C-alpha cells in the first residue's frame, strides 16, 4: 500500500495581485505523473485545497480535472479533508457524486465520529487501509464557550476538545479494524498547528483560533495511528522528531519568504510493514519527493549597489524570476521604482513588490524616543509625512483638509457596505 501525502495547495492564491494558475496547473500535472510513475495507491490531501471559501471557476476546473485524472490512473483512492481556508459545505457538496470515483471528501466533523472513519479496499474488496479523515476542527466543533472564561481557560478547552475528538475517532477506527479481522494500518489526518513547529515570515499561515494559539503537542494523538498526515503549516517538517507524524508543507511557495525553501510531497509505503499492528518497531517507509520550481521567486535585499548587482546576475542567467525588492540603503532614493524598472527592462524578470525601508525609517524617525507608532493617530502620521517630504507650511492646511475629507468618505463607504 503506497500513500502519497500532500496538503496546502491553496489553488487560486495570488501573489501581490499576480495570478498563479499556470503554476498550480503545472504542479497538478506533475503530481499525476508522480502517482503514475510510483504506482501510488492512495492520495491524501490534508486540507486547504483552495485559498478561499469561494474559489474561482478556473480554480475549480483545475481541482476537478485533477480528480478525474487521478481516478483514471493506478491510484485507487483519494481522501480529501477541509482546511481552515476551505468552505466545508462547498468542498462537501459533490461528495456523493465523487464517491463513484473513489474520492472521499470530509468537509467538517459529523455528529458521529464514525463518519470520519474510512475503510479503503483493494480491487478484490479486501480492506487495505483505514483512514481517520479528520478535517480542520473549528472552535464550535470541539467546545462550548463559557461566560467569563479566561484566555487560559479557552486554550485548555480547545486542546482538550482536539484531544477528545481524536480519541473518539481512533476508538471507532480500532473497533472497525477488529470487526474486519484485518491487520490493516490506520492513518489519520489533521489540519492544525503543532507545538514547536516551524513557520516562515510572510507565508500567510493564519492562527486557527481567535484569542488563542492552541498549539497542540504530539502527545494528544492516539498510539494506534501508524501515520499522521498534517496540513496547515507550509514548511515540510516532522513533529517532535517523529518520521510518521509530519507536515508535507505547501507544494508552491506561498510568498517570497518561502522562495528558497525546497517543497515536497511525502510517500508513505506500508508494503514492508509487518502484519502485527501492535508492533510499533515496524514503521512504514517514508520518502520525500522534491517538487520542481514552476516559477522562480527571489527576494533581493540591500543597498542600491547590491540590488543592482544581483539584478545583473539574474539577467545574465536569463532567469524569468519574480522579484521582491527590499531597499535597506542609507541613501534616500526618490526614484527607486524608476531605477528598478530600467534595470529589468528587456529581461524576463518581473518586480511584484518594492519596499523602501529608507522611507519607512524616515517616517518612524519623526517619532520621539518616548513615542511608539501606537501612540500616534491617523492625523499625526499624516502630519509627520508632510514634514518628512518638506511640504511648505502654507500648503499643509489645504492638504490636511483634503486628507480628512478622504478619510470621512472612506468611513461612509464602509458604513454603507455594512
Automatic annotation (TrEMBL):
Keywords, in A-Z order: DNA recombination, DNA replication, Endonuclease, Exonuclease, Hydrolase, Nuclease
Coiled-coil segments on the chain, per record: none
Organism superkingdom: Bacteria
KW Nuclease (keyword) present: yes
Record domain Nuclease SbcCD subunit D C-terminal: where: 293-388
Subunit record text: Heterodimer of SbcC and SbcD.
Protein family (similarity comment): Belongs to the SbcD family.
NCBIfam families in alphabetical order: sbcd
Role: SbcCD cleaves DNA hairpin structures. These structures can inhibit DNA replication and are intermediates in certain DNA recombination reactions. The complex acts as a 3'->5' double strand exonuclease that can open hairpins. It also has a 5' single-strand endonuclease activity.
Protein name: Nuclease SbcCD subunit D
Gene giving rise to this polypeptide: sbcD
Amino acid at each position: 500500500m503506497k500513500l502519497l501525502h500532500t496538503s496546502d495547495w491553496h489553488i487560486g492564491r495570488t501573489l501581490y495581485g499576480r495570478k498563479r494558475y499556470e503554476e498550480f496547473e503545472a504542479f497538478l500535472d506533475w503530481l499525476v505523473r508522480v502517482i503514475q510513475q510510483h504506482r501510488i495507491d492512495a492520495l491524501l490531501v490534508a486540507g486547504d485545497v483552495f485559498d478561499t471559501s469561494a474559489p474561482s471557476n478556473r480554480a475549480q476546473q483545475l481541482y476537478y480535472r485533477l480528480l478525474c485524472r487521478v481516478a483514471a490512473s493506478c491510484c485507487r483512492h483519494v481522501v480529501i479533508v477541509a482546511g481552515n481556508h476551505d468552505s466545508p459545505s462547498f468542498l462537501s457538496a459533490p461528495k456523493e457524486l465523487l464517491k463513484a470515483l473513489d474520492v472521499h471528501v470530509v468537509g467538517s466533523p459529523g455528529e458521529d465520529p464514525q463518519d470520519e472513519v474510512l475503510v479503503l479496499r483493494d480491487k478484490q474488496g479486501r480492506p487495505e487501509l483505514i483512514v481517520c479523515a479528520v478535517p480542520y476542527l473549528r472552535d464550535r466543533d470541539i467546545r462550548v464557550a463559557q461566560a467569563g472564561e479566561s484566555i487560559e481557560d479557552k486554550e485548555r478547552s480547545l486542546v482538550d476538545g482536539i484531544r477528545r475528538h481524536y480519541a473518539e475517532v481512533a476508538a471507532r477506527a480500532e473497533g472497525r479494524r477488529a470487526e474486519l479481522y484485518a491487520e490493516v494500518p490506520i492513518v489519520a489526518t489533521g489540519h492544525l498547528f503543532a507545538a514547536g513547529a516551524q513557520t516562515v515570515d510572510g507565508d500567510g499561515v493564519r492562527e486557527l483560533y481567535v484569542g488563542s494559539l492552541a498549539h497542540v503537542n504530539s502527545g494528544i494523538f492516539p498510539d494506534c495511528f501508524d501515520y499522521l498526515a498534517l496540513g496547515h503549516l507550509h514548511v515540510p517538517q516532522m513533529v517532535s522528531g517523529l518520521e510518521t507524524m509530519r507536515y508535507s508543507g505547501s507544494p508552491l511557495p506561498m510568498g517570497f519568504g518561502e522562495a528558497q525553501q525546497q517543497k515536497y510531497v511525502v510517500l508513505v509505503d506500508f508494503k514492508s510493514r509487518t502484519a502485527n499492528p501492535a508492533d510499533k518497531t515496524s514503521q512504514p517507509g517514508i520518502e520525500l519527493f522534491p517538487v520542481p520550481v514552476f516559477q522562480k521567486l527571489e527576494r533581493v535585499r540591500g543597498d542600491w549597489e547590491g540590488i543592482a548587482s544581483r539584478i545583473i546576475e539574474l539577467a545574465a542567467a536569463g532567469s524569468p524570476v519574480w522579484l521582491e525588492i527590499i531597499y535597506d540603503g542609507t541613501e534616500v532614493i526618490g526614484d527607486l521604482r524608476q531605477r528598478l524598472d530600467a534595470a529589468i527592462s528587456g529581461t524576463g524578470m518581473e518586480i511584484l513588490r518594492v519596499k523602501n525601508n529608507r522611507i519607512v525609517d524616515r517616517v518612524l524617525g519623526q517619532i520621539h524616543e518616548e513615542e511608539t507608532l501606537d501612540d500616534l493617530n491617523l492625523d499625526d502620521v499624516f502630519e509627520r509625512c508632510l514634514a518628512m517630504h518638506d511640504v511648505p507650511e502654507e500648503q499643509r492646511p489645504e492638504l490636511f483638509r483634503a486628507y480628512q475629507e478622504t478619510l470621512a468618505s472612506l468611513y461612509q463607504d464602509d458604513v454603507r457596505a455594512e
